[in-house]
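Onboarding guide, step 5: your first structure request.
Type a short instruction followed by the sequence, for example:

Predict the 3D structure of this protein.
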Amino acid sequence: MPVTALRFNLVEPGATPASLHARYRAALEMAVYADGHGITTVQTEEHHGVADNWLPAPFAFAGAVLGATRRISVTVSAVIGPLYDPLRLAEDIAVLDLLSGGRLVTVAGIGYRPEEYARAGVAWEQRGRLQDELLETLLKAWTGEEFAFRGRTVRVTPRPYSDPHPLLLVGGSSKAAARRAARLGLPFFPSAHLPELEAYYKERLVAYGTRGWTLMPGAETPLLHIAEDPARVWSVYGDHFLHEARTYASWQSSGVRSAVRSTATTVEELRAEGVYRVLTPDECVAQDLDNLVLHPLAGGIPPEEGRRSLTLFCEDILPRLVDREV
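The system replies with structure tokens like these:
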């Protein structure tokens, strides 16, 4: 059975507070529906100060989803680690872990937008050091014991539900990220299909004498929208997909590697490229993907269209995938 993810970034260009309220409530209702229909995880993101209202508070959203569901996990992919106070983040994750019974997954990255660092008053040049400090602090904090932090003795309570600690992965597409994960014995989450980086991570595990594992995107990890008439969706909502793809692409320097990197400049190019795919249920099943990432509200798509996509996915596609495994 493939891993199934419901992705939300809650982008909406030109939104009003009322329309964003409706979008956030729709996303929460969709997560509850997904929880009852066997989807594996809700995946959410973090970006700050974006004109189209990209979600800036992934843990607040995660808490709402975890509180409204019973089985589904929530993956924050990825938190921009150096922008956080390490002690406060340790507390927030511990509380969410306790509330959810261990259903929160955190991927810690360092980000790739200098303007987000400038906005937060954090030095871009210090991001590696700050990420090291963050990860080391989280692991110490979750023991519930006293430890040294910035020249003083501190203790974080309560301890999390998960033993030895909540699931924490190190994200990135660089050797520095792989070394960081290996040194701390944490799982590694490459931001794209990078077998050579996975091999380097394994080498560093041996060198450091630690243990870990890799959760790597497949060679193909398209963002999916399900529809009976894909041509209609591309005609009506193609600009929404393109807006999100172009926004995301504008942030990525040549050194950033991503599983969802797009170079399209028109709706026609985006449709041909295959990073965003609008598929019928039959077409989706025939793709035979290891990871199915449904992105029902991409680029500000209206909630009613997102609900149609999710319903088709859960009621037509998932039962066939289950039957195929039997």
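Each response can be followed by summary notes, for example: The chain has a mean pLDDT of 95.
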